[in-house]
Design brief:
The complex is a heterodimer of chains A (264) and B (155). With 264 residues, chain A is of the alpha+beta class. Chain A has three domains: 5-50, Uridine Diphospho-n-acetylenolpyruvylglucosamine Reductase, domain 2; 55-166, Uridine Diphospho-n-acetylenolpyruvylglucosamine Reductase, domain 3, CATH 3.30.465; 170-263, 2-Layer Sandwich (Enolase-like, domain 1), CATH 3.30.390. Helix content of chain A is 33%, strand content 25%. The N and C termini of chain A lie far apart (45 Å). The relative contact order of chain A is 0.12. By secondary structure, chain B is an alpha+beta fold. Chain B folds into two domains: 3-77, Roll (Ubiquitin-like (UB roll)), CATH 3.10.20; 86-154, [2Fe-2S]-binding domain (DNA polymerase, domain 1). Chain B has five helices and five strands. The mean pLDDT of chain B is 97. Classes of the chains: A alpha+beta (264), B alpha+beta (155). The structure holds flavin-adenine dinucleotide (FAD) and FE2/S2 (inorganic) cluster (2 copies). The site of flavin-adenine dinucleotide (FAD) has 32 residues of chain A, from strand 2, helix 6 and helix 7.
Chain lengths: 264, 155
C-alpha cells in the first residue's frame, strides 16, 4: 500500500472540506473494500478521510413508517437491531448473512452501497424497498442511485449520510451465496406494500435490476405459483467461473419463488 | 508519522506508525505480539482476527491509525496468570488444532462468538466461524472444542 495522509474528522462539514482541499482524496468507512484495494495498489489516494467517528452517520431509528439507517452503521448493528428486526426482518437477516462476523463488525451499509459491487446484498434490498439515499447534497431514489458496474449516482466528494426505508407489509431476501466469499451468486429481494410488489435482483448481472414481469404477476396473485412459467432472459446476465448466465437466470426464478413463500 | 495510543491486552501503549500500517503489522512488528498470524493478507482466512473494543475484526483489514484510542485484545491476552482461557483449554482437550496456524484467529472468533451467544449449537458455531479457514483439521474437532469451551466460559 502506498502511504497517504490520514484524517479522522468529527463532522460531515469537516469531511467535505478536507476532501475539497486534498489532491486525490478517498473516503473510508469500514475499510473492508477500500483497504484491500489499496493493498493491491489499485487505489493510491493522497488522503484517506475516515468517516468512522462522524456522529451524524451513526444510528438506526424508526419514525412513523420510515426506518432510517446511518451510513456508517455496521452490518452487525443492522443484523442485531431490534428496530430493524421488527420493521423489516428480511433486512436484518440479509445483514446477518453478509460475509463473516469480522467483516460484519467493520463493513458499513454506506460503504457497501457506495461501492455497488455487482454481487453485494444491500442494493437488492434498497431497490426493492424503494429506499431513499440521503447525501450531503441531495436525496436520491435507490433505483436511480445504482447506475452500473461499481457505479453510482454519487458525485465527487458527495457523502452518503443515511438511508431512509419505507416499512413494507412484508418482504424476504433469498441469496444463493458463492460459497468462498459468501457474496451473492444471485440474490432476490421481494417486498410487498399494499398492492405494489417490487422484486430486485443482485449478483445476476453487472448491476442490481428489477424483475418487472415477476412484479406484475405477483401484484395479481402474491404466491409462488404466480411465477410458474415466468423467467428472465439470460441475455444480459453474467457468466464467470462460478456460474453461467443460464444458471443465474434459473436461480432468479427459484429464489424469487422462495422469497415469496418466506415473505414476512 | 502519526502517533497512536491504544490499550493492548490491558496495557496502555503509544506507538509511532505510518498511516498505511496495518493493525496486524503493528501488533507483530512494533509490539512483538506475533501470536496474531497473517495467513492470507487478503481478508479471507481469519488467522489475524483480534478483538477491537470487544469485537472480532480482521487486523489485516484495519489500519493501525483506526485503532487509535481503542482497546485491543490479541491471543496473548486470553490466558490469565499463566492459566489458559477456557476456550484455549477446550481446544487442547478436543485436539482442535493440528499445525496451529489458524488457531489464534479461531480462538479470538470463538471467544467472541461464545460471549455473544448464550446457547450455541453445531450450526451456529459453523456459521460463526465462516471467516476462519483451517487447512488441517476438517473443522470437526474445532466445533467440538468451541461448544465445550463456550459451556466452560458460562461456568
Ligand atoms: C471476506 C469478505 C466477504 C464479504 N462478503 C460480502 C457479502 O456476502 N455481501 C456483501 O454485500 N458484501 C460483502 N463484502 C463486502 C462488505 O460488505 C464491505 O463491508 C462493503 O462492500 C464495503 O463497506 P465498507 O464500510 O467496508 O466500505 P469501505 O471499504 O470503507 O469503502 C468502500 C467505498 O465506498 C466509499 N464510501 C464509503 N462510505 C461512504 C459514504 N458514506 N459516502 C460516500 N462514499 C462512501 C469509499 O470511498 C470506498 O470507495 C465482503 C467483504 C469481505 C472482505
Ligand atoms: S491474514 Fe487477515 S484474513 Fe487472512
Ligand atoms: S490447524 Fe493447521 S490451519 Fe488449522
Amino acid at each position: 500500500m502506498y502511504d497517504f495522509t490520514y484524517h479522522r474528522p468529527d463532522t460531515l462539514d469537516e469531511a467535505v472540506k478536507i476532501f475539497s482541499d486534498a489532491d486525490d482524496p478517498q473516503f473510508m468507512a469500514g475499510g473492508q473494500t477500500i483497504i484491500p484495494v489499496m493493498k493491491q495498489r489499485l487505489a493510491m489516494p493522497s488522503d484517506v478521510i475516515d468517516l468512522g467517528k462522524i456522529g451524524e452517520l451513526q444510528g438506526i431509528s424508526i419514525v412513523g413508517d420510515t426506518l432510517t439507517i446511518g451510513a456508517m452503521t455496521s452490518h452487525a448493528e443492522v443484523a442485531s437491531s431490534a428496530d430493524v428486526k421488527k420493521a423489516v426482518p428480511a433486512l436484518a437477516q440479509l445483514a446477518n448473512d453478509i460475509g463473516d462476523p469480522a467483516v460484519r463488525n467493520r463493513g458499513s451499509i454506506g460503504g457497501s452501497i457506495a461501492n455497488n459491487d455487482p454481487a453485494a446484498d444491500y442494493p437488492a434490498a434498497l431497490v426493492a424497498l424503494g429506499a431513499t439515499i440521503h447525501t450531503t447534497s441531495r436525496e436520491i431514489a435507490a433505483e436511480d442511485f445504482f447506475t452500473g458496474l461499481f457505479e453510482t449516482a454519487l458525485d465527487e466528494g458527495e457523502i452518503i449520510a443515511k438511508i431512509a426505508i419505507p416499512v413494507p407489509d412484508k418482504a424476504a431476501y433469498m441469496k444463493f451465496p458463492q460459497p468462498a466469499s459468501r457474496f451473492a451468486l444471485v440474490g432476490v429481494f421481494v417486498a410487498k406494500s399494499g398492492d405494489q410488489v417490487c422484486v430486485a435482483v443482485t449478483g445476476a448481472g453487472p448491476c442490481v435490476f428489477r424483475a418487472t414481469d415477476f412484479e406484475k404477476a405477483l401484484e395479481k396473485n402474491f404466491s409462488a405459483d404466480a411465477l410458474d412459467g415466468i423467467s428472465i432472459s439470460s441475455e444480459e446476465l453474467s457468466t464467470d467461473i462460478h456460474a453461467s448466465a443460464q444458471y443465474r437466470a434459473s436461480l432468479v426464478t427459484t429464489l424469487a419463488r422462495r422469497a415469496v413463500e418466506n415473505a414476512a | 508519522m502519526p502517533v497512536i495510543s491504544l490499550t493492548v491486552n490491558g496495557n496502555p501503549v503509544t506507538v509511532e506508525v505510518e498511516a498505511r500500517s496495518l493493525l496486524s503489522g503493528v501488533l507483530r512488528s512494533n509490539l512483538a505480539l506475533t501470536g496474531t498470524h497473517v495467513g492470507c493478507d487478503t481478508s479471507q482466512c481469519g488467522a489475524c482476527v483480534v478483538h477491537v473494543d470487544g469485537k472480532p475484526v480482521k487486523s489485516c483489514a484495519m489500519l493501525a491509525v483506526q485503532a487509535d484510542g481503542a482497546s485491543v485484545t490479541t491471543i496473548e491476552g486470553l490466558a490469565k496468570n499463566g492459566k489458559l482461557h477456557p476456550m484455549q483449554e477446550a481446544f487442547r482437550e478436543h485436539h482442535g488444532l493440528q499445525c496451529g496456524f489458524c488457531t489464534p484467529g479461531m480462538l479470538m472468533s470463538a471467544v467472541a462468538l461464545a460471549e455473544q451467544n448464550p446457547d450455541l449449537d453445531d450450526a451456529a458455531v459453523r456459521k460463526g466461524l465462516e471467516g476462519n479457514l483451517c487447512r488441517c483439521t476438517g473443522y470437526q474437532n474445532i466445533v467440538h472444542a468451541v461448544l465445550d469451551g463456550a459451556k466452560a466460559m458460562r461456568g
